[in-house]
């Protein structure tokens, strides 16, 4: 009798797993309470291996979002998800490749060993700059570890990441002005993200950009133009004010 009950129980578990594995992901995800600023469109595949044509997060569209969920990890109360967003070979697009772990008990989310690429133009467009800036290059960020609180707010409680603005440049009246490379680190506290760029770099640039999300950045910093700076760059610098006795121009917006 006990053997029969055990076989029935195992059979039920296998059947439920088979049903969940084959049900289209859109029938499940469209009924889940996602964070208020996250929306999914054109969902295909299954819950274990699926894709969303577009995901919007804080009004920022993310294209071609794919995921793989480890069924084995669920036995330990954690959903381990491998995520791939976009295409690394496409220069002017957002790209993410990494792993997300969601605890079913604490409802906390942990991100580990994740690479993120954001076009500089997208990043700078979110900042309230005094003048429009057409930027070149990408912000490449490596997230070693990040922890977020429970749903639905997903507040950031820990973030350890470093990045760089590669092949940096801005468009001036006479053409593209190459700026080299800028190094940065990223962290969070009290659900406020902070990105810091420090010297040395070709612009003598250092700044801190912070906010609740990428669309709400407050920036404070300074820069110092080199003696051989292009005239276009000199003219742009005038919008930020006058240099101090050390040659630095401060800015805040």
Summarize the structure in short.
The protein has 253 residues and is an alpha+beta fold. Helix content is 17%, strand content 49%. The chain has helices at residues 2-22, 25-29, 71-74, 120-125, 231-237; strands spanning 38-45, 49-57, 60-70, 78-85, 95-103, 109-119, 135-148, 156-172, 175-189, 192-197, 206-211, 218-223, 249-252.
- State the end-to-end CA separation: 74 Å
Number of strands: 13
Largest beta sheet: strand ordering: 1-2-3-4-5-6-7-8-9-10-11-12-13
Query: How much strand?
Result: over 45%
What structural class is derived from the secondary structure elements? alpha+beta
Count of helical stretches: 5
Largest beta-sheet characterization: 13 strands, antiparallel
The string of secondary-structure elements, in order, is HHEEEHEEEHEEEEEEHE
Specify Rg, calculated over alpha carbons. Answer: 23 Å
Subcellular location: Cell inner membrane
Pfam families: T2SSN
Family: Belongs to the GSP N family.
GO cellular component, one term: type II protein secretion system complex
